[in-house]
Write a structure and sequence with these properties.
Radius of gyration: 22 Å
CATH superfamily of the largest domain: Clc chloride channel
Helix content: 55-70%
CATH class of the largest domain: Mainly Alpha
Order of helices and strands: HHHHHHHHHHEEHHHHHHHHH
Strand content: under 5%
């Protein structure tokens, strides 16, 4: 049987009511669908990152042609207008982070999915973020991967249970590829998108996310993408897979550090809740005013460009800021300034409906708070935990997304040091407890529009 025939099986409508039944009767089609989903999610995520790098470099090079006060607002406003028009006219479902849309679909709401949504998300996201909107590739990677999964389920004419599984697996694969963190992508798909799953579902999601990460490694090894890779070329000349750290860490964990980090996580959660309220409030205001998306993004891009022109030049290269925070090469005053600037600008960009992700800004915001907190502790006398920066990163994301385990492993992906898992998880737990006391829902759930149609009864999956 040809691969094309495998993706268009004649399924018995009576027997095809569960994932288990589909595996029994069309296992080859299921394997092909998962492989293609992981491949598509990884390719889309890596193309997104490559496009951001290229357009970001072009934006910086353009500054040599004239004054920043003129060029940065023009680039931001023009990029926002183009991206907004693309989304507004071709795929309105591609606006925003993309995670709320995937969550709605998984709860059986009529949300458009498919290749068109993924393509618009890819192009519009690159244009917007590359033009100066301070967001990241995480949310778009989730939505693009989920859209690929939806297409595979459509071709397979699969039952609803499998469709929901492969959509969530595609989202997790996108996270795995963009962060080079297969465990983090797998856990995020289970923890947030599926909110728990049966063993067979967990296995299929695990296969898809790890395959996406492997495909990303293969693309880097073949030179198809020029990103900061997780593979390295040894001196001998033949490629091999090696773990790559964004930062090199020295981790020392004392018992008192765990208490300090739990408290740090609780304090970070207070700032994270303010951030959530800020983003949600601005987003609701935009929807109430019913301003067209293109106009909103054009005005937001112009304002963000103006702010970039007035700020120190270091703020134009936000990737450099994230690296400096992760390495701890920032003093307390600089860390607080970075936090305030990113708090305002990333929240404004997200609330404008920009097709960009929030995980990268969350990690930077939390890292800045962790760094500032460590400096404050040391000013009082005792030695601060040397994992405070990573603990702050995980805690901020855990408080906003309510996914402490995923936040721990996505933070771990930065250093690849197993010793940070315990202190980061402790901070994430302190953050989660405090965040749940402040509000029951995550940021992404609060961004889901109210008044959605009622959900139909769930399909049986014995």
């Amino acid at each position: 049987m040809s691969p094309a025939a495998c993706l268009q099986p004649k399924l018995d409508p009576v027997r095809s009511t569960s994932i288990r039944t589909l595996l029994e009767h069309q296992w080859l089609a299921v394997v092909l669908a998962l492989v293609i989903t992981g491949l598509g999610a990884a390719t889309a995520a890596l193309l997104f990152r490559a496009g951001l790098d290229d357009l970001g470099r072009w934006r910086i090079q353009m500054l040599a042609l004239g004054p920043d006060l003129l060029l940065l607002p023009a680039i931001g406003g023009g990029g926002g207008l183009i991206a907004g028009l693309l989304v507004q006219t071709l795929a309105p479902a591609a606006q925003g982070s993309g995670i709320p849309q995937v969550m709605q679909f998984l709860r059986r709401h009529p949300i458009p999915m498919g290749i068109q949504v993924a393509a618009v998300k890819l192009v519009a996201g690159i244009v917007a973020i590359g033009s100066g909107f301070p967001l990241g590739p995480s949310g778009p990677s989730v939505q693009m991967g989920s859209s690929v999964g939806w297409e595979m389920a459509r071709l397979l004419r699969a039952p609803d249970a499998f469709r929901r599984m492969i959509v969530a697996a595609g989202g997790g694969a996108g996270i795995a590829a963009v962060f080079r963190a297969p465990i983090g992508g797998f856990l995020y798909a289970l923890e947030e998108l599926l909110q728990g799953a049966r063993p067979v579902v967990m296995l299929l999601v695990l296969v898809t996310t790890f395959w996406a990460d492997t495909w990303a490694d293969l693309m880097g090894l073949a030179g198809l993408v020029s990103l900061q890779p997780s593979i390295a070329e040894p001196a001998g000349g033949s490629g091999s897979f090696e773990l790559s750290r964004q930062v090199t860490t020295y981790v020392q964990v004392r018992p008192i550090d765990l208490v300090v980090l739990f408290i740090l996580g609780a304090l970070v959660a207070l700032a994270a809740e303010l951030y959530c309220c800020y983003v949600v409030g601005l987003n609701r205001l935009r929807l109430q005013l019913q301003i067209p998306l293109a106009a909103t993004m054009a005005a937001t891009g112009t304002l963000l460009g103006l702010l970039d022109a007035l700020l120190p030049a270091d703020f134009i290269n936000r990737a450099g800021i994230r690296q400096a925070i992760a390495e701890g090469n920032v003093e307390i005053g600089q860390a607080l300034a970075i936090f305030l600037v990113l708090f305002f600008t990333t929240g404004l960009a997200a609330a404008a409906g920009t097709p960009g992700g929030l995980f990268a800004p969350m990690l930077t915001l939390g890292g800045a708070l962790g760094l500032a907190g460590a400096d404050l502790v040391e000013q009082w006398g005792p030695d601060a935990p040397n994992t405070a920066v990573f603990a702050g990163m995980g805690a901020f994301m855990a408080a906003c997304a309510r996914t402490p385990i995923s936040a721990t492993f996505l933070t771990f992906a930065i250093s690849k040091d197993l010793l940070i898992l315990k202190p980061v998880l402790v901070a994430c737990l302190g953050s989660l407890v405090t965040a749940r006391l402040l509000h029951r829902q995550s940021l992404f759930k609060r961004l889901i529009p109210t008044g959605d149609p009622p959900q139909p009864p769930p399909e049986a999956d014995p």
